[in-house]
Structure prediction request, 458 residues.
Amino acid sequence: MFLERFQKGLSLRKLHSSLIVIAVALSGLTIYSTIRMSTSFMDVRSATAQHIALDQAVHRLMEASDYLTENAQRFTINGDTVFLDMYFGEAINSKRRDRSLHELAQAHQADEALVHLKEAMANSIRLMDLEYYAMRLVIEAKGIDEYPDILKSVQLSAHDAALSPEGKMRRATKMVLDDEYYRLKNRIRNETHQSVEALEKLTQSSEDAAMDVFLKDLGLSRALVLMMVASILFAVWLTARLGIGPILGAITQIKADKPIPEAGASEFRYLAQAYNKMYSAYKGSIKQLDFKAHHDELTGAFNRAGFNALMSGAERDSIYLIEFDLDNFKGINDNYGHDVGDRVLQRIVRVLKANFRSEDHVCRLGGDEFAVIMSGSGHEPRELLAGKIEKISRELLSGDGDVPPISVSVGIVHGSQASSVEKMMQKADVAMYESKRRGKNTFTFYEAPAEPSPAEQA
Prediction:
């Protein structure tokens, strides 16, 4: 059924409407799938971040406990109150253990880890009771007057209170170094370790569940993307077969500046025939239009527009710009008439073309001003260029039948002497006017003005 309708011709309007509906439906499903996949990914990230945060909280509790133990033992051994201050700075101000316990209590489904952490906290408090008692012994032994109020409530036993200062120090040291003390420390470590293991199990379970959902959503997104790509490819193929192919072929021919093949639908054949007729007429006239746009009608030399186009595309470091200005040309027009003046202009172009190469360009810039662009010229010896200009001057001064003799003033500049086309023309003008100043009928190479000496600057 479809092939039969395809051969007879499908409606592009109906086809495009159907494809739009399909594309909108697939796009909606893809967006929905993407949102689900993004949510699943965020769940994975959240589970991982929670594990990291809780793991850090558990380790902070252990670090705080070890920090308290270290400062309690140091104070007990040498009685330096600096360690006493550091101990209570952690116990009263920092309270890392309390914050860790609070963070874990806020976590979802972390009950098992919280139980172990609370037990570790309870053992830590028991340990602190031993440490407080040992500290009070040291305070009594050292006769320390200023110490935290919480230690004032610690009451020594009658036996310990009766000990000598040395005995109290020994008793305090034994309390923070004996087996009972380290049994409590080990209990804290064991409970902390079990808390970490419980967190790892919880996190792994959460990550696995979130990852399963994420992978399912990812599979759905891939399937939808593949369906969308297949739909797009099918739409492109149908559209190309039904109408775009001939148009694309025509565009390729037009870009290649070639006639369009008269093939395809009758409407397109008609358009191709009309285009080919216009193309034939266009190609016949374009050369003439281009020549008139860039050439001087009287002399056949490039005009100002042609000169500008040539200079804009030239590599300045490899060209000479030679400017010719006819001397006393107004007098020829006044004495001989404008017809003779025109023939003088035509003759100078013939002479210039005869003396320069075919790859050089002769231009009429306006009135009696001409220029030659010498292409592919490095810093050629000036003698060769000077000899060429002297030969041109001799030919022009010899006259030619009814064309009277005329001299020229010439200015020469190399492209490497200027930073732009405009600067190059300005410097050619400077050199040409220098030839005028020197009495005309001569040529001048542009020379950059010398910098003033220090004495002149002064």
